Amino acid sequence: MNKKLIILLGLLGLIPFYFSFIINIFSPNFYFQNESLLNKISVLYGSLIVSFLCGMHWREIIFLNKTKLYIFPMFPVIIIWVTQFFLSLLIKQIVIVILLFWCLVVDLSFLSKNSPVWFKRLRLYLTIIATASFFPQFFS
Question: What pTM did the predictor assign?
């Protein structure tokens, strides 16, 4: 396992969460003309990440042979994608923050017992940094 590569890829995975912020810095006019679209991109990316993490949980549950938990990782995926079609942007952002922390709790509580401490810390830091990208939008 290449620890440095995993850390680098994890950090690079944060860029889309801050895409609208980066665009705002380098091209404020473009940002203000397309603010709604840029915020939707962050929400879509957050939804994909939640889905990816739930897929990892599902795989782990299968390998642990915990058949009673097979459906467990599907609930966040269903919730995240249903909210994409029916709720406001603010509610979508709140749901993504909640589900990113939910995935972290699932990882740290019972799925990553064999994971190294540095990986658990990385998951914690990445989740905090990813969810922090939504907080300025909550107060605007």
Answer: 0.88
